[in-house]
Structure formats: C-alpha cells, structure tokens
Design a protein that fits this description.
Radius of gyration: 21 Å
Helix content: 25-40%
Mean pLDDT: 80
Number of helices: 17
Order of helices and strands: EHEHEHHHHHHEHEHEHEHHHEEHEHEH
Low-confidence stretches: 1-69
Strand order of the largest sheet: 3-2-4-5-6-7
Distance between the termini: 27 Å
Shape: globular
Number of domains: 2
Oligomer: single chain
Number of strands: 11
Strand content: 5-15%
Structural class: alpha/beta
Length: 419
C-alpha cells in the first residue's frame, strides 16, 4: 500500500521546529550525540492545523506520553517486516493495516521493525542521511546491492561519477567513502534478520517501498536458503504494476507478490497458506505456489519461471470501495520497538492515518507530473465520524498528538463535517 505525505495535523498547538543540519556520516552505536533529528518531516510538506471537536480534545494526552500496552506473546504465524531504509519517525501504515486485517481473521500476525536494528548498527546520523538525503539516488539500495549481486555491479567510482555527483553537487568523495564503509554491516545484519523469524512462522511479508527492495531481497533469499518451505510475500509501492511483475519474474525467492491494495487479498492468501491450500494468481496477486513444489521453486532460476498469468491481468488490481470497513491500523509493534530502541528521546514519533484513497482532482484533470495512483485513481473517502473515531482511538492508545495524513488530496466535504 502506497502512502504519500500530504497533510500534517497537530491536536494541540506546538512551537515551531528546527530542522537538523546536514551532517557527516558517522557509524557505530554512538547514536545519542551530534545530531538534532528532523522532527518536522520533509520541508516541502504543507502544514495544516485541524480543529477538532471536544470528542477528540478530551482524550489528548501529554506530549510524548505513551500508554500503548505491551503485546501479548503468542505464536507468530505471520511476520510482516519493515526493512531499512524506512523512516524511523513513524510506523508503516500499509503493513499496520495488513496486520490488523490479518488479526481480524483470528491469525497471529506481528510487525518487525528491523529498520531500527540497522539504524542502531550504523548510527542515527548515517541512517537519516541515507533515508532522507539519498532516497532519490537509491543510496540505500546500493549498500545492499553488493551483498545480493557480488559480481556485475558498476564499480564505486562509476556510481559516484555517474549517479551521485550529478544529483548532489555538494557530495564529496570523502563523504561517499564514509557511506561505503557502512557496507560492512550488511552481511551480519542479513544473518541476524534471518535468525529472528520464529520457527512457527509460515508467512513472511516484506514492505518494498522507499529503498527497501534490495534489503528485503537479501533477507528473503537467506530465509529461502535456510527454510525453503516458508512463504515469502512482497508488496508496497515498489510492487506497483510493471515493477511488481518484473520483480516477481526476476527473483524466484518471492512466492507471492501483491500489486496495489492488499487489504483483502493478503489475508485471503494467508488463510489459504495456513489451511494447506495453494494460492492462485489473480487480479492484484502473483503466485508461484501453483507452478511447482517447494523444492522445485527453490531450485528454479528466473529464466525458467514463466509468469503464472498475463502481466496485464495481474495489474488489474482490486481496490477497497468502502473504506469505513477497514480496521484501525495496528501500531503496537512500532511503539514497542521505538520505546526499546537506542533512539528514545532523540525524536518524537508520529502517527500515520488515512482519510481517503485515490484523487478526485486527478479523475477530472490528471496532473501530467503525477504518477502516484496508477490504476487506483478512483476517489474514495471515509465518513467524518469514522475519521474522528479512528483518530480518537489512535491518540488514546498511543498517546501521540502529532501525525500526518497519507491522503493524496483532501475531501472538501470534510470542511463542513470534520473541520
């Protein structure tokens, strides 16, 4: 599920923030010095204050106070993973919705924020720099690329000269050399991730969005090497349309790939796996599970693994028409991981929420520069009562009073019903 930053809200007034300055990379675990984390997100995001009625104001708690309970320790049948280089400042909305939808079926599902673990290895300044500054040149993907493709990549000088230097005239070769030093953490981190998957886990799902594709593929391949029977699923913005089809075709460790909104297709697939059934390909889902047995799939190469259905059919993704029926996102694992991380006190976490999907303006006058929605342009929005109830629940549960909406555009009907 793709989430686009568009609107910020503040439940209670706050002072203006000061963005952190551009810093040199610094590795290691000394993460508490030398940085003022960017508490305000991206500078070009427009801020908007919402005024809520007393139903919301009555349950706002003191800033930074978390009342989120510890998750009960149970068997983990499904593990959803948020890999580097996800932003540490907020939970992943997409997989948090999938976790809640899966749990609604009575299936134990947990979200692992391994992005925190990699950040603790390389240090917060380095992680923030890669996640924010190098996103448009895929510097984070480059760090993991050598682990997945030990041969055949362009050399480092060519990457600096042809990719980094033209995109960032201020980047020096010394700074690039510091970035390359962080590659030494990758092999051990991949091994560590594979060791964290519980023995009883049947499905591991990876969110592939901003600079998460190769980190996810590295761990997925290692998991398949150790446990070929485990089902590996991919989804997220990097799996949209042709990108997802090509990922599925080229990387045989992916058993299931979800294109677009997987609120229904993912829990359906998980139920089938747990019941011993084979998941079939269909609109919004690509599956290898109907093509070969597990050992045959593990031994297959991309060249002899034909697509199970036409690419155009796979890209006919399903959309959720009634957003009010969706569960509230489950952020428990994010706040538990943040509370136990080395970065508690370094920044204040935010909550993410969505009021709508698609774009009503794009349905009438599609902006030529925008490629956000793909085949899900049709606009759908939640009722005002549902939005208020969801925000009340999230603020009450997690004690966080700042966050952002993942909507593409604002529903003007909310001007009377919500604001």
């Amino acid at each position: 599920m793709d989430c686009v930053l568009s609107t910020w809200f503040v439940l209670q007034g706050s002072n203006g923030e000061t963005r952190g300055k551009r810093l040199r990379l610094g590795g290691g675990r000394n993460v508490r010095g030398g940085i003022t984390p960017d508490s305000g997100g991206f500078p070009y995001v427009e801020r908007l204050r919402f005024v809520y009625d007393n139903r919301v104001k009555a349950i706002v708690h003191a800033r930074g106070t978390s009342i989120q309970p510890e998750r009960e320790v149970v068997m983990t049948q499904v593990l959803l993973v948020n890999m580097p280089f996800a932003n540490l400042r907020w939970p992943n909305l997409g997989i948090s919705l999938l976790a809640a939808a899966t749990q609604r079926r009575g299936i134990s599902c947990r979200v692992a924020y391994w992005c925190f673990d990699f950040a603790e290895r390389i240090g917060l300044p380095a992680y923030h720099w890669i996640a924010d500054h190098f996103a448009f040149v895929l510097g984070g993907e480059r760090l993991f690329a050598k682990h997945y493709f030990p041969d055949g990549l362009p050399d480092d000088d060519a990457y600096f000269r042809e990719v980094l230097a033209p995109a960032d005239s201020e980047l020096t070769r010394d700074e690039f050399a510091e970035l390359l030093l962080l590659e030494r953490h990758v092999p051990e981190f991949v091994e560590w991730c594979a060791n964290q998957v519980p023995a009883e886990c049947r499905v591991v799902g990876f969110a592939a969005t901003f600079q998460q594709t190769l980190p996810s593929l590295c761990v997925a391949r290692e998991l398949k090497r150790r446990r070929p029977e485990i089902v590996i699923a991919f989804g997220g913005a990097a799996c949209e349309e042709e990108m997802g089809v090509e990922l599925f075709h080229r990387f045989p460790e992916i058993d299931l790939l979800f294109l677009g909104e997987a609120d229904d297709t993912f829990p359906d697939a998980v139920e089938a796996v747990l019941q011993g059934e084979r998941v079939r390909s269909g609109p919004g889902v690509l599956s290898r599970m109907t093509e070969r047995s597990v050992p045959e799939r593990a031994a297959a190469s991309p060249s002899d693994a034909p697509l199970p259905m036409k690419a155009d059919d796979a890209c006919r993704r399903l959309t959720v028409e009634q957003l009010d029926r969706l569960p509230y996102p489950d952020f428990d694992d994010y706040f538990a991981r943040f509370r136990n991380s080395a970065f508690r006190g370094e920044f204040e976490p935010l909550i993410a929420f969505e009021m709508s999907r698609g774009c009503w303006w794009g349905g009438k006058h599609h902006c030529s520069f925008c490629g956000l929605n793909g085949t899900s342009l049709a606009y759908r929005s939640k009722s005002a009562d549902r939005v208020i109830d969801e925000l009340k629940s999230l603020v009450s549960r997690y004690g966080v009073e700042r966050g952002f909406a993942a909507d593409n555009i604002f529903d003007f009907r909310y001007r009377k019903s919500l604001l």
